[in-house]
Design brief:
The chain has 444 residues and is mainly alpha-helical. Helix content is 53%, strand content 4%. It has 18 helices and 3 strands. Bound molecules: zinc ion (ZN). GO terms for molecular function: DNA binding.
Length: 444
């Protein structure tokens, strides 16, 4: 293959039979009406190579992928191409992705392909150049064994970072997804239609046809879409409108107005253009988690601080606005109620109230509002008054946005954004069985 089509592909090619070559020529003749010019005509072997490449099927799922990698692993180690540790690290990344996105195997396989075919080669090339220029390269980098540097983090080069971090791969994946969905294909529209119709039925109530649409249904669907944090929520809403119209129902002014208002609401807080990194609470080390709040400048453990924002699905700005006066605890029910002012005008915080109950586990989980509140109260040193902003700096002022993000970063060992806690919290609530309506309510 290396001589024929792709210099990076060293696989062997089976000799061709005359019939296959004849069939290929016939197809060309049929389509083009003439045989190709001599200088443009590929050799039979080149055709065969391309045919092999096009028809080569990748692994169909993670298990197959793993099986094929096992063969590769044995070969790679026998030939001393890279270290076992770096191979395992890479496999773990792929496995984690398949757990997180079980339905997106195709995308993960693409990302894997892309990573190995393009990124690794680019990385190797750059390191070789760095080496020649006398620049710093990872200590154990060898030209003939380039992939082992993979496991060392935080060294240099964008390509290298992509390789070593899950987030990078996820980003590559979402870029891939972007490419797939850039052309509004019929099928992706069809999927949107089905999903939004399902959602509308849920909102309308059991057994009721959501069409023709009522104001309540449209608003309910919009609330759910918003609560889910989906970026393309307005497109779903648009499909819902089209469904209604195509079924031959009227669009009276009140319905037009409802759609306009809902669409505005969906676009207003469209959220970040990049998906916030999901930094899970369970990944925080026990040592850090158990450390008392009194050990921290503001009197609250950074991990607890992050968990608090997660459990209430708060963006950084809302988490920072939390005041002690906004929290009510019901000792008997083990319930916590949080009220957050919607704006500066709403200092009494009459706007939004949310209540969460203790997780009820024998030892309270990290994702338990009751647990977090108890810890924040108990561990706060007495020099701090339980008044005003909950999260403060050493000067007892409200924690700035950058300081809050810094605290979240150090708690999670991830590079989080202002949206990370909200997104991670939403995912965790869904994992624990919360329904989409409840989620929308909690996250409104
Ligand atoms: Zn609990």
């Amino acid at each position: 293959m290396a001589n024929l089509l792709d210099q990076t592909d060293d696989s062997e090619l089976m000799p061709l039979d005359v019939q296959t070559v004849h069939a290929w020529s016939q197809r060309y003749l049929q389509l083009m009406g003439d045989m190709p010019k001599e200088e443009e005509e590929p050799t039979d072997a080149q055709m065969a190579a391309l045919d092999k490449r096009v028809n080569q099927m990748g692994p169909q799922n993670f298990l197959q992928w793993q099986a094929s990698k096992k063969v590769f692993r044995v070969a790679a180690i026998s030939l001393d191409i890279c270290s076992l540790a770096s191979l395992m690290t890479y496999e773990k990344v792929i496995e984690r992705l398949t757990v997180q996105w079980p339905k997106n195997w195709n995308l993960i396989a693409h990302a894997d392909d892309k990573a190995r075919a393009e990124m690794l080669e680019r990385l190797r090339r750059n390191l070789v150049i760095y080496l020649k220029d006398g620049k710093r390269v990872p200590a154990d980098f060898k030209e003939d064994k380039p992939w082992s540097v993979w496991e060392q983090k935080g060294y240099m080069g964008a390509a290298y970072q992509i390789a070593s971090s899950t987030v990078g791969l996820v980003k590559a994946m979402s870029e891939l997804k972007g490419n797939f969905w850039a052309v509004p294909s019929r099928s992706s529209r069809e999927i949107k239609r089905n999903e939004v119709l399902k959602l509308a039925s849920m909102v309308a109530g059991h057994g009721r046809d959501p069409l023709p649409l009522s104001q309540e249904t449209v608003e309910g669907v919009a609330a759910c879409l918003k609560g889910s944090g989906m970026r393309s929520g307005d497109q779903y809403l648009n499909e819902l409108k089209l469904l209604h119209i195509e079924e031959g129902y009227d669009m009276p002014p009140w319905l037009v107005r409802t759609f306009t208002l809902c669409k505005k609401a969906l676009c207003r807080n469209k959220g970040p253009t990049k998906k916030a990194a999901e930094a899970k609470l369970e990944n925080i080390s026990d040592d850090l988690w158990q450390e008392k709040g009194s050990e921290f400048k503001g009197g609250i453990n950074f991990a607890v601080m992050y968990a608090w924002a997660c459990v209430w699905m708060l963006r950084e700005i809302k988490a920072g606005a939390c005041k002690w006066e906004h929290v009510r605890a019901d000792e008997q029910q083990k319930q916590i109620t949080l009220s957050i002012p919607m704006s500066k005008m709403d200092q009494m915080a009459t706007g939004v109230k949310r209540t969460l109950q203790c997780c009820g586990e024998v030892v309270c989980s990290r994702f338990c509002a009751w647990n977090l509140w108890s810890r924040m109260q108990k561990e706060l040193p007495s020099k701090f008054k339980k008044k005003g902003f909950v999260f403060i700096n050493e000067k007892m002022e409200r924690l700035s946005k950058s300081k809050m993000i810094e605290a979240w970063n150090s708690a999670t060992s991830c590079r989080v954004s202002g949206h990370s806690a909200r997104r991670s919290g939403a995912v965790e609530h869904v994992r624990r069985g919360m329904q989409i309506q409840e989620l929308a309510f909690l996250g409104r």
